[in-house]
Design a protein that fits this description.
This protein has three helices and five strands. With 101 residues, the protein is of the alpha+beta class. It is globular and about 40 Å long. The relative contact order is 0.24.
């Protein structure tokens, strides 16, 4: 099994971070056939995502995103590609949100 860990700091606050996380969840559902579940909390949210060979979560906090995922044996061979794609998607959403300020 291969692990992916991505951390991104931001200064968006929880409400805006939620918008980005939900947009990210919609993208990965459509693009990678993921099943996402959003668990809202008072101080942070968790987006749980899964599909065959992948299981993980995205912690959504007022000042950072923390993504952790476990890739199964077959997808583990593509860890670098998957990690780069996830980073690209998240960074793109963060960049777009800072332009809207």
């Amino acid at each position: 099994m291969a692990d992916i860990h991505i951390h991104r700091d931001h200064s968006l606050g929880l409400a805006k971070a939620r918008e980005i996380a939900w947009a990210w969840a919609e993208q990965v559902e459509a693009k990678f056939d993921m099943e996402c579940t959003v668990l809202e909390g008072k101080t942070s949210d968790t987006v749980e995502f899964t599909r065959s060979g992948v299981k993980g979560e995205l912690i959504v906090a007022p000042d950072h995103f923390e993504l952790s995922a476990k890739l199964g044996f077959l997808l583990g061979a593509f860890k670098s590609t998957i990690e780069n794609e996830v980073q690209k998607e998240l960074d793109s959403l963060l960049k777009a949100s800072t332009k809207k300020k």
